[in-house]
Amino acid sequence: MGMKGNQLAKSIIGVVVFYAVVKFAVISGVINPYWQRVLDQSLIYVIGALGLSLIFGFTGQFSIGHAAFYGLGAYSAGLVSKTLGTGSIPAFLLSLFVGVIFTGLVAYLIGKPVLRLQSDYLGIATLGFGVIVKVGLDNANKLIPELGGATGMTGIPQVATFEWVLFFTALAIIISRNFLHSTYGRVCTSIREDEIATKAVGINPAKYKLLVFIFGCALAGLAGGIYAHRYPFLHPTSFDFLQSFNFLIIVVAGGMGSLTGTVVTAIGWVFLLEGLRFVLGEAFMDWRGVIYAVLLVVLVLVRRQGLFGNKEFGFFAPRAVITKEGKQHVAAGS
Amino acid sequence: MEFFLNQVINGIQLGLVYALIALGYTMVYGIVKLINFAHGDVFMVGAFLGYFGFTYWGLPWPVAILVSMVICAILGVVIERIAYRPLRYAPRIVALISAIGVSFFLEYFCSLKFVFGANYRVVQRPLPEISWHIGGITITNIQLLILVAVVGMLILLQWIVHRTKVGAAMRTVSFDHDAARLMGVNVDRTISFTFALGSAMAAMGGVLYAIAYPQIQPFMGIMPGLKAFTAAVLGGIGLIPGAVLGALIMGQVETMTAAFISSQLRDAIAFAILIIVLLFRPSGILGRTEPEKV
User: Fold this and answer.
1) Which residues of A lie inside 8 Å of B (Cβ-Cβ)?
2) Of all residues in chain B, what percent are helix, strand and coil, respectively (each to 5)?
3) What structural domains does chain A harbor?
């Protein structure tokens, strides 16, 4: 489990440097509020995509319903925050906590029966769950008027600053990375590689699949909770199956089984979409979706293993383990 | 009771259109194990081409349907050739992402102003609607048209798959690509044929859908595509009778939910049923769960 002290120190320095660079860019006017919003969005995507990366990229459990958990987190955290109404930091953290717990609980209830299904059937079942959640959110105002239903939800205190977003992103990255390099993470990779062989060595795959599913969905819930406190308007269409495709695309395009790939691609993907808006200008805005689609197809055609394959870099790379024989082994999870 | 029976008929109408789309999904899945997410968009292109055919190009509607089917068959083959064939032996998820990309491409490209445009278009029906009242039940000529067209298509499909050489090739390829190749089957050509056949049926479904529910736009294929695929999974993906059975169930569930519970909940209930069925029959209603071999 744990990291060596110097690695932790290095990563904290990394985050601080990143923060300082962004802050400097904001003060000097290089990053205007618009691009700050885009940056925050990309970091929120990192948190959500990490969740799917663990579930699908590392454990091989095909889910096309990830955005549903992102939405459940956003709406539940948003509801708590809106009800408390203070917008204070403790209220913000409490609502995030509630959002994560609620999302994890739903993931448990859904994952328990559904994770028995194999590959594409699991994908379709999670896709179906995503549609059900979307319909639920569309009609949520009939039960709880504050949720707004199909007209969208407003009135959540906007307290998630860049500092908070960055803090939670760093936290999510560190937890995910340590999880993968733990015994649990190794079991997950072995389930992806061969579930029957995993069973044969006396491990119960169902338990680990459920565990990683809850964990990954809770990360999506955290991302949703932050989203709700960063952008003033929640709408069910932001959490439909097309959004689930986005997470799926990020994980696959980054490289299945590469946390580095997931993080870099999540950020790059959000900036690509916004960048296209900027580059194309008003006259060619309609072409944005076309260009995006072509880029996606070309990317998988020329680099089917994803941008990073299953390689990890820097902080994400597994640390080398020196065994008694003095040989170097690389920890699992890569 | 009469209201109920009329809903049954409406459900059959919807289910038959879903069946046409579901067949393409299931055949492609059976043969290359790919969820072809772009299939719903081929259905959309088919609907538009049929609409242009009988509205602007002055074609009689049966000819418009045929033209649409031929163009979509070519489109299906081209999609397979460009976006799926190079990835045929890559991990399946990669081809799936490619399919999502093609789906986005068709939707956004068709939304461009010089293609179809992003707005809704109201379809002027090429044949006047006639309804017959039989003991309280209302049947329209459009429903009859759909029934005849779909049943005819099913018979044709059964004949192709079970009585022709290319059908035998399709069945062989769906078992094992390498073994099929050793037996002298041209695998590439067989897969192309499957895409052509599936796309042509989706196009027919599209035109019939546009006639029955006369409003079209470039994103119209997403939901029917998703539901038809769900229907195929429900029945047991890869199985032609399964796709039809699943589609008919899907049509009924959706119509009944809309009529008796709430039209807003129909998608949710349809998918809830899918999940419940999968939990008890993990390979669909007609599918067989094969024991995993080590």
Assistant:
1) 62, 113-114, 116-118, 120-121, 123-125, 127-129, 131-132, 135-136, 138-139, 196, 241, 245, 248-249, 252-253, 256, 286-290, 292-294, 296-297, 300-301, 304
2) 75, 5, 25
3) 38-330 (1.10.3470)
